[in-house]
């Protein structure tokens, strides 16, 4: 289907993309609702390969035409000035897409996995309310063999625009669920056979390299928010407290970097 040209920034056909800086914080819009917004050709290609239903594609001439769009996906083009006026900022990636949001998975369904093949590695996040950190963790998770995300109720929305952008669209291929009973619900991981490893810089924690992932077919890495880290209650609920050894004078890594190190070490 050929692209339609947008010349009026108020055109309702591109309403999904209007004022993206406000995002799901628009008045009257609840957190974690509204369409998923994906930026940049590589991320849009990953969206097209995912199970999300694409609502529309919008970009500058040439970028939209370069995409292999399925039949029936509305496609719109505009010059860079109209595009910027619609979305509320200058887009260097040239193309965006919107998709219907999918709800989080049921926790038991996530732990069981597709065809009852339980995920071997999980990332469990507590209080991680920075969307960009969450997106970076999701990108590392997909790259380094983590099969899903389990979030506490305070975590950021993994489908928020900035999270999807930083993940380069990889978060769209990563199953996620919310564990409402926190941290008591972590007991469900133990019952499902997971070794739960709480990451902390505390000096009395064991060296992460000493946690033998090969002897534990299922491992879940617990990570806390930037700064405060995991709460004491979450650490107490884990089977193992582990630290990444570092030079003297450096007390910790950023949570996204720490996550990548942990995922690679426990792969």
From TrEMBL:
Keywords, ordered alphabetically: Methyltransferase, Transferase
Residue ranges of every copy of the tRNA/rRNA methyltransferase SpoU type domain listed in the record: 123-263
InterPro entries: Alpha/beta_knot_MTases, Ribosomal_eL30-like_sf, rRNA_Methyltransferase, SpoU_MeTrfase, tRNA_m1G_MTases_N
GO molecular function: RNA binding; RNA methyltransferase activity
Coiled coil: none
Name of the protein this chain belongs to: RNA methyltransferase
A Pfam family hit: SpoU_methylase
SUPFAM superfamilies in the cross-refs: alpha/beta knot, L30e-like
GO biological process, one term: methylation
């Amino acid at each position: 289907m050929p692209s339609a040209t947008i010349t009026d920034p108020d055109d309702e056909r591109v309403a999904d993309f209007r004022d993206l800086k406000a995002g799901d914080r628009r008045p009257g819009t609840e957190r974690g609702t509204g369409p998923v917004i994906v930026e940049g050709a590589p991320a849009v290609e990953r969206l097209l390969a995912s199970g999300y239903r694409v609502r529309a594609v919008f970009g500058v001439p040439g970028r939209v035409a370069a995409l292999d769009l399925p039949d029936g996906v509305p496609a719109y083009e505009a010059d860079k000035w109209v595009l910027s006026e619609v979305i509320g900022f200058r887009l260097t990636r040239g193309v965006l897409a919107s998709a219907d949001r999918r709800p989080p998975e049921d926790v038991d369904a996530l732990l069981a996995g597709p065809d009852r093949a339980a995920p071997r590695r999980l990332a469990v996040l507590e209080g991680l309310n920075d969307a960009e950190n969450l997106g970076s963790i999701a990108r590392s998770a997909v790259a380094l063999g983590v099969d899903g995300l389990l979030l506490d109720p305070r975590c950021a929305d993994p489908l928020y625009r900035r999270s999807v952008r930083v993940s380069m669209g990889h978060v769209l291929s990563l199953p996620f669920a919310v564990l409402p009973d926190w941290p008591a619900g972590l007991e469900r991981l133990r019952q499902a056979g997971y070794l739960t490893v709480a990451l902390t810089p505390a000096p009395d924690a064991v060296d992460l390299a000493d946690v033998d992932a090969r002897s534990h077919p299922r491992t879940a890495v617990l990570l806390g928010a930037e700064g405060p880290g995991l709460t004491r209650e979450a650490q107490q609920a884990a089977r193992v407290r582990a630290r990444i050894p570092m030079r003297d004078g450096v007390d910790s890594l950023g949570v996204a970097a720490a996550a990548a190190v942990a995922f690679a070490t426990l792969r």
